[in-house]
Amino acid sequence: MNVKVTLNTDIPSVEVKEKNVSLDVDEFVTVLEIINRVDQINHGFKNAVIVNGDEISNEFIILVDGNNVVNDAGLQTKLNSDDVVNIIPAVAGG
Amino acid sequence: MIVDRIESHFIFVLHWDHVYRGYNYINYKGKPLTNKEYLKYWGKWIVFGSREEMNVLAEKLDPYVEAKDIPAIKYDREFITEFNLSRCVMCVYCHLKQRDQVWEILASMGVEDKAWGTERETVEKWLPGGINMEKWITGKNLGPEDAEKMRQSSRDKFKELFENEDAIFTGIEQ
Q1: ipTM of this predicted structure
Q2: Chain B CB contacts of A67 below 8 Å
């Protein structure tokens, strides 16, 4: 299945090569696996977004189809076909 | 109508009745929200773009605000440098139960990236220790005394919201 990932944020520690990424992935792929895939394209991305091993950095909000994954299963949130993963700075919208 | 007051960081899109007749747009089906309901249900679609893109989108969305299909909108006049943001942010406010309908409007305008945030999350970010409050203090280079004043001001501002759940929500100073 296909999912789209959009980085709606600047990440100073990462040389972002692609802000809009389209990925072919297995069914029920998790947010964590998506982050690993994006990290292969934008090196350092995973280290910026995940802290303390398995926590989402408080600098970022990860949304799947518009919804903050912390209100679902966090990094273990499973994706469906055509879902969009949107990563935004946590400070936005205040 | 678009409310562009130079003294404000934000440019608003508000219903004419709100600006001139005190209409409370924070309602659901005409019923004003209590503080508890506000924290539980009120939120916004967050849209990113340049100031020019925001202006164009605001003009397109204004008729939907006048028709009360969208309760209210605000967007940055300029980048918030204290937060190191390199784009303007637009907040398109509505009740949780209206959000799909409001999203359809945004999508019809070409908005693609969905990002829903609740007002509870935003309030928590502006409380002492919250990411927005602490980044703002750092970005403004406030000393310890001024930083504490700012944190205390935040506690005072949000006190009513948390302590008086059943009161009608009366807004937060912007």
Answers
A1: 0.92
A2: 116
Please judge whether A68 and B80 are an interchain contact, meaning their C-beta atoms are less than 8 angstroms apart. Answer: no
Q: Give the distance from residue A66's alpha carbon to the nearest chain B alpha carbon, in angstroms.
A: 4
Distance from CA of A67 to the nearest CA of B (A): 6
Q: How many CA atoms lie within 13 A of B174 on its CB side?
A: 14
- Identify the residue whose tokens are 């440098």: B81
Contacts B83 to A, Cβ<8 Å? 89, 91-92
pLDDT score for B174: 65
Asked if B55 is an interface residue toward chain A (Cβ–Cβ < 8 A), one would say no
Residues of A in contact with B48 (CB under 8 A): 8, 88, 92
pTM for this entry: 0.94
Contacts of B105 (CB under 8 A, 6+ apart): B61, B64, B69, B70
pLDDT in tens, A25-59: 999 999 999 999 999 999 999 999 999 989 999 99
Neighboring chain B residues of A19 at a CB cutoff of 8 Å: none
Give the pLDDT confidence of B130-150 residue by residue, as tens digits: 999 999 999 999 999 999 999
Beta bridge partners of B88: B49
Residue type, B115: A
Virtual torsion, Cα A62, A65, A67, A72, nearest 10 deg? -80
Residue of B nearest to A61 (CA): B115
Q: What 3-state DSSP class applies to A69? A: helix
The structure tokens listed for A87 are: 């990563």
Q: What are the residues facing A20 on neighbouring strands?
A: A6
For B6-63, write each residue's pLDDT tens digit: 999 999 999 999 999 989 999 999 999 999 999 999 999 999 999 999 999 999 999 9
